[in-house]
Amino acid sequence: MNTSVSGLMRSVGRFAALALLASTMTIGGLAEAAKPTGGGKAKPIISVSPSSLSFGNQAVNTSSAARSLSVTNSGTANLLISNVTKTGTGAGSFGYVNGCPGTLAPAAVCSISVTFSPTSAGAVSASIVISSNASNGTTTTIALSGNGTTTVASVRRVEGAGDSIMRGYNATCRTNTGLFDFLCYGGGDQPENSFLEGSSASVTSIVDRYIQLDAQVTGGKAASASGSEMTDATKNNFAKQASAIVGAATQPVRVFVELGGNDICNRATVNDLYTDTVWETAVRAGLETLVTGLPDGSTVLLVSVPRVQELRAAGIAKQTSSGGTVNCQNFWATYNVCRIATADGGDLATRLSAIGAKQRAYNDKLVALAGVYNGRALSTGVEVVAEFDPTVNASVGSYAFQATDINGGDCFHPSIQGQNKLSEIIWGRNPYK
What we know:
Helix content is 33%, strand content 21%. It is built from twelve helices and 16 strands.
């Protein structure tokens, strides 16, 4: 009897243990199946663009155009924004308007508008701090910076960034084979004959045209220099000239940029020509300085790169019709004038074709970048336009220079007639009059 009961109890115990194990496995399986997929519970994630704001130069006791910070909830749960504030030693120079709600749904975007109003000269910095329940950080900090200046912005000031073309190089030289011709072409720059703001009565400059509309307009081109490139920092490039322009005691509101010919002429072979990416980076560097440093309401006009590939033919035509007073080929070889485009050789046609393709690519980049920066005009306060039009003779970059458009000294730079032609074309393409 006891044996039977004992055996029965052992059987019941084994059955109960098996049942409990089966139950545990089943419940565990159900629990595992019930777990959420996709990496766990939903979380809010905050992202802010841009990650910092630099306002550049701003005159003391004036306010910049508003700049926007875009706040995005890129997570899968509501982002709860508990506070937006500013901190730092320069916080008093920055103002903001918080356009974000307390709760930001997944994929939703809101904005915070920031302005810079320096009260004294010098560099200023601060931060916008956003407090939230974001899983990637409950405190998000956006750095703010700017520079208070005591410079004066003149609504009647025109400035230029440019190279030897803007400097009126050899504009009055007519011949180069005579004994005393060196006295002209050896002189180089003739700023008084510049298409931009030459004082000579022989040239109707762009500033002259502005003066016809407003007698108080003034102009300058102090930042420009012969030999300058858009790209190479060792050759007074666009970025350096832009810095000089925005740092001037009197800031302009009209800036004309004429660069690019030397970016082609200073290269030894077509394989050495700057890539489109390198060119674009250089243009962006200069534009960034101008749009962040010029006063609100300013405009920047990008003059297109001239057709360097056709200047050799214009020079040969000038030489042929000169009766021996001009020898362009000898001058080019002696003084190493843009040999990538002027040197003889069996590969001449190939070189000129490659130069033509690159000149067009550079100008297309100017047009594209003008569109990008003009799209930011509401936030930067500065408009940008490109002068290039591929229609024949409609812009500097599509104009076919003739023998009379280049001087007889170096047979390459614009003559007085050429400087006038540049002024005429650029003024015609200038929407800011």
